[in-house]
Design a protein that fits this description.
Layout (H helix, E strand, L loop, with lengths): L4 H12 L5 H8 L3 H13 L19 E9 L4 H8 L5 E6 L6 E7 L2 H12 L4 E8 L10 H12 L7
Antiparallel strand pairs: 1-3, 1-4, 2-3
Length: about 160
Amino acid sequence: MAVDALDARILRLLLDRPRTSVREYARILGVARGTLQARLDRLERDGVITLAGPRISPAALGHPVLAFVRIEVVQGHLDEVGDALAAVAEIIEAFSVTGGGDLLARVVARDNAHLEDIIQRLTRMPGVVRTRTEIALRERVPHRVLPLVEAVGERSARPEGTGG
C-alpha cells in the first residue's frame, strides 16, 4: 500500500498527538474532516494503522524485568508451541525467527526469580528443546515508528525519478 505525503502527515499527527479528535486533526492539516476520516479508514483497512489504544508499561504493572528468550522447538511443533506461549501472560510478544532458535519471545517478570520460573515453565512445554535467555539492562531506543513515517513521507513527496 502506497503512503503519500498527506498520509505521512496524518500518521505523524497520530503519533505526536494520539488523544486529539479527528476534527482537530483535520483543522491542523487543513483538510476536510471527511477527507481525513476516509484516509484514516483506508490506513486501517490496509493495515498501516494496526492499533488504537494506550501503550501500557509492564514495569508500572510490577514487571520491571525484561528478557528476550530464544526457544528451540522440535521440528513440526512450531504452531503448538506458539499456541502454548500465548497462554503465558508474561509473554508480551513472540515471533518465528531465523538463526539460533525457532521463536523469540519478549518476556516480562517481577524479578529474576520470577523470570526463572517462567523459563522453567517454557522448558516443560511439549515440543520445546531448549531456551536461551538474554536480560535487557536498559532501553536505548524506545519503540518508535515516527522516523520511518517521516522517511516514507519524504520519499513520497519527491518527484518521480529523483533518487534517495
